[in-house]
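Please check this protein record:
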Amino acid sequence: MHAYRTHTCGQLRKADVGATVRLSGWVNRRRDHGGLIFIDLRDHYGITQCVIEPDAAAFAKVDAARSEWVLTLTGKVVARLEGTANADLPTGEVELRIEDCVVQGQAQELPLPVFGDHDYPEETRLTYRFLDLRRERLHKNIMLRANIVTSLRRRMIAQGFTEFQTPILTASSPEGARDFLVPSRRYPGQFYALPQAPQQFKQLIMVAGFDRYFQIAPCFRDEDGRADRSPGEFYQLDLEMSFVTQDDVFAAVAPVLAGVFEEFGEGKKVTAPGAFPRIPYAEAMLKYGSDKPDLRNPIEIVDVSAIFDREDVAFKAFKNKTVRAIPAPGAGPQPRSFFDKLNEWARGEGAAGLGYIQFEEESGNIVAKGPIAKFLSPDAIDALTAKAGVKAGDALFFSADAKTDRAAAIAGAARTRLGRELGLIADDEYKFCWIVDFPMYEWNEDDKKIDFSHNPFSMPQFDREKFLVLDPNDNDTILGMKAYQYDIVCNGYELSSGAIRNHDPDVMLKAFEIAGYARAETEEKFKGMINAFRHGAPPHGGTAPGIDRIVMLLAGEENLREVTMFPMTQSAQDLLMNAPSPANAKQLKELHLRVVYPEK
């Protein structure tokens, strides 16, 4: 018999009754029933109930065992007594009658009980992550992640992609976040950077003649964490394709993502691969107040600025502003407290408030009520109901601001909040869409200059010859320019950003010049890529869906910490391995570094 186990703790069934077996695992739970000791033994595969009577030879050893001790138990498999079977366990029809017990490892008093699903502070969970990972929910999530990655690899290979690995130590690149820098011992004062993404390398792979590339790529960005973004590092399904249009990329990626969500979505409805809606960025910002809309929410925002600028509207607070109306189906009969609460929420978001109108039916006519209604003529009310598509029993909320993007953002957040509070969001669906036609450039108000809006390596949707002679001061033309850039969005989460790449060195130099980079600076910073493009570059494009967010959605979690094996805290600390930590004097000397601490 094997020294540790003949079966796993999730393997035994009624057909094994009568067999002598050996199991090894952790004590998930210990119960004392009038002398009988029950041990629920847990390993990676499941749980088996084990039992021993007081007169058994191994009773003292089993009696001494406590939660999370590691035991090897040997004995006969018996059927559970009638009425005691556990239908929730695959092994629930049998139990092990313990004949021998070997203690493989004792556990001290637990700072984090493994049995049960109680919530504990982040600091405790991450300091004792090895215990946290033993808990059923987290263990299940991590296994789900592993299976999703396996499925993604299988589907990508089936689509004709080949997996290649790109360097981890590379050069700094303006990807939009801070780099993690690695000092060079051999070259004093010089630094490598950890890749924010394999962007340049995957493009170079296309230039090298490899047609369809992918990898499960680690990416590193020195940015603050939040629930849907890990601080420091994350993984993405990175891919690139040669000789493709935007449509070709969509046709390759949509079946992979839809297939994974169908495989692991536990029966939830998934948007068909060929039916992902394509929503232009400008339309998304108008209708949903966000470039990552949750399409499970049926509410669509409308612009009513022109109505509030009419002469028959006396509500001066909205005059000469961008005014967005957010319909709230069925919210009309809600009490005053409902509307006051939303108004206070909007103020907490930095808005002046959230105006509203309630619509009721009186004598067959729709009547508007609320603080704003008295300032509107009947014709203006009719115009609002027609534009917003509201009816009796509905309400209409308003977000207004002198800045269009601010009015849109508050309206988008209000749309999401109303969708949740009114129960409008369908929880049994995964709704995908493509957001397309992103602006190539945007205005940086702080620095008073033109910046790249999305990905600097994207191809502009602009005639090549006209682009090369474009006046860098022609802000109207530049800020109106779109790029072949696109995002994949699912249920309000951006899963991926991608683009058809700018493979023309002259167009690339001009694109960076418009964003304020001198040509010599661009040539130096991206000399490897630009030099490659001068030696025959194919048209190419790709994208990079985030593994962490895919798993988070499929696991039904709201925080990436719940689907990451060893996450850091929101403040980017690894409490388990104590990182970051100071370097010693010898290490600093070898790296030609001296630490200068900030003034307190």
User: Anything to note?
Assistant: The mean pLDDT is 94. The longest strand covers residues 20-33.
